Amino acid sequence: MNRIVQSSAHAILAIALMTPALSAQGTFDRTKVPGLGKTPALKLPAVERSALGNGVAIQLVGQHEVPIVQLTLVVDGGSRLDAKQPGLASFATRMLTEGAGSRDANALQSELAFLGANLFANAGSDAFSVSLNVPKRSLAAALDLMADVVLRPKFSATDVRKQRDLALAGILQRKDQPTQLAAIAFNQLMFPEGHPYHNPASGDSATIAALDSARVRSFYAGAYVPQRARFIVVGDISLGEIKPMLQSRFGAWAASTPLPVPAVTANAVSNSAVKVYLVDKPGAAQSVIYIGVPGADRLSPDYPALRVMNTILGGSFSSRLNSNLRETKGYTYGISSDFRFAPVPGPFQISSSVRTNVTDSSLVEIFKEIKAIRDVPVDNAELERAKNYVALAIPGSFETNAQIAGQFVTLGTFGLPLSSVSELGPRITAVTAGDVQRVARQYVPVEKVTVLIVGDLAKIRAGVEALKLGPSALLDVSQIVR
Questions:
Q1: Which one has a higher pLDDT value, 36 or 56?
Q2: Is residue 115 part of a domain?
Q3: In which band, very low, low, confident or very high, does the pLDDT at 33 lie, cut at 50, 70 and 90?
Q4: What is the pLDDT of residues 322-359, one digit of tens each?
């Protein structure tokens, strides 16, 4: 106890001795927000490049702070290869980790856990990826497992049937989940039939029920081909170390006839006036709202201005939409807007779940904010805050090995060089209030949006239609989830 009292006395004495020094530095004004310092220059990691004997490219970024390696295999294609079989790409990719080589799913996961490794397979809309994160000491053994998953998946009939039944159960559950219903219906409204983004990536009951081991294996053989593949390696390893390790495991991966990538003949649907679609979910405590229009090309010169404009409108927690509907009105836990950039331009969308009894009021506020950013130039303080929000977040996308790998995946999707990242900051800083207003008017035509609402129509329909946004149409749940 005496030691505690003595320590406290020393601490008090130290504070007393420091007080004059603190006073000499001046009084800190707590009524003012500290100003931001000069933005430091972004220093991007160096990239080394090579290729395996079969042509599979390797991109390597050395990060030697911790002995961990992130290795991502990217194969172009993704769910765009589904063609008339929605859900096939996603299902086949899920099956990769359900048994490979001599191991079933349990044995595979047990060995990964023993090695301290994580391995995931994913089918995106435009590419497949198999990612491995592992301590360097376990890399060789973990690569053996990854090679089995990529090159020697089992696709056993028993496992396919089990996963097929789980997938069908998941499709049935969607009918009772308004947020999923809304997401699926929105894509169906925004993209025409036959467009690669029209159908849900997880498929429908008819296509999933028709899956068997032979069909999955046939798709895999044409989708996972080395001529569309590349490795992205980030971590505590050199190119001289990783290349022979990959060559010994993936060098014999032989080219085969790839599945054709379907041509896209149409982009998102463009309206001549506002169209409103309603989906009835009796008893729903909230209404799910989606508002969208055709979006923009990621390679557009307007990309920096679009990022800043969206940050102001709904792309950040302090955005106008969130500040209004969440903080001021209390209508929702959150609302956001975003451009869905993809090789095939996706839509600009605003989405939120709001209390049933304020569905019409929420629509009024959303349209008010859209019109405001189109009609009134943003002030300098809001503009600078948004530009700093976007520009200062860029380095945060290169903090971890997985984030660095993810950036390379994204850049590869659009054929962008790494230098485009360092160039983005100055381009963001150069955005003006006029640029924000111009792109808002060009890319968010409020008079032509698609409005989708999933909720209890007995309680919300009269209020929504009284707003006279545009003609309304009913969508049946069975039309959305098949």
A1: 56
A2: yes
A3: confident
A4: 999 999 999 999 999 999 988 878 899 999 999 999 99
How many Å apart are CA 321 and CA 327, to the nearest integer?
Answer: 9
Alpha helix locations (H) across 393-472?
A: 401-414, 419-429, 433-443, 457-466
In a domain, 35, yes or no: no
Alpha helices in 314-358 (DSSP H): 320-322
Determine the pLDDT at residue 3. 47
pLDDT above 80: residue 188: yes
Residue 462 lies in a domain: yes
Sign of CA pseudo-dihedral 15, 21, 27, 31: negative
Q: Is 113 exposed, middle or buried (0-12, 13-18, 19+ CB in 10 A)?
A: exposed
pLDDT value, residue 5: 46
Q: Which domain holds residue 413?
A: 275-480
Task: Give 3-state DSSP helix, strand, coil % of the chain, rounded to 5.
Answer: 50, 20, 35
Structure tokens at 347: 């839509």
CATH classification of the domain holding 421: 3.30.830.10
- Given the structure tokens 């007080």, which residue do they identify? 19
Q: What pTM value is reported for the model?
A: 0.86
In a domain, 290, yes or no: yes
Rounded to 10 degrees, the C-alpha dihedral 293/299/303/307 comes to: 70
**Token pair in block for residue 138:** 């376990």
Q: What percent of the chain has pLDDT over 70?
A: 92
Residues 444, 314: Cα–Cα separation, whole Å: 13
CB 78 within 8 A of CB 125: yes
* Residues 211, 217, 218, 219, Cα dihedral to 10°: 70
**What pLDDT, on the 0 to 100 scale, is given for residue 19?**
52
DSSP string, 380-394: HHHHHHHHHHHHTTS
Residues 275, 470 contacting (CB under 8 angstroms): yes
Domains in the chain, number: 2
Question: What 3-state DSSP class applies to 233?
Answer: strand
Residues 237 and 152 in one domain: yes
